[in-house]
Amino acid sequence: MSDAAQPTAADVRSAAEAVKTALDRHLAAVERRSGEDDPAVSEAFNQLAAAAEAYDELLYDRYDEVTPFEIPGAEDALPPYAGPEEPNAISVLIRRDYTVAEPQRLLAQAQRVEAAEIDDGADDDDAAGTVPGALGILFGEFEPDEIASRHKEFGLEEGDSTLWVTAAEEPPEAGEWLEAPFEHIDPQTVVCRFDVSAVFDEEDSAGEDDEELDFVEEDEELEPLDAEK
């Protein structure tokens, strides 16, 4: 914001009073709510969010300070559920992020799986010699949930994850969405979602974040790995 348009101290004070008023209105609406989806509560929430956002912007422009409040944007929030009341099918969408923290451990574990397959008569294409190849071997051999529970064995470090459950009237036809499995998801059909992120418990996990990674040395013996599914 330019100096000419910079808000005055009175502007900031007025915005702060607006937040207080909106806060009182929101509490009153919550106390009088008539049901889970009371429109008065939703309206009061939106007014409070707008007032808090305006105050935050003015406070920053005038004093270069911020508030501890994070107002979710429209793009961050799911719309109200508008799917079938009695769905006959659901889809579960999962995203899990990992960091390849120990490439040598990852390669060693993939090489073990590859060696076991060679012993069973499979062709030796040495796919385990690269990180992409090793990932392909391990995720092809083990279920995603098993990798999630044993990620450290594979040299991976967990990042953020999310799980969405969507509802539908009927299940899709076989092979219908395989070419683009994650496109055309209607947010209004999301029944529930579960997010896991270090940002939610940053203070509680500060000590864990500072913990050193236990890298595998060349002469360190790897733990036994069951290559069977």
From TrEMBL:
Residues 203-229 are annotated as: Disordered. It comes from the Bacteria. This is GrpE protein.
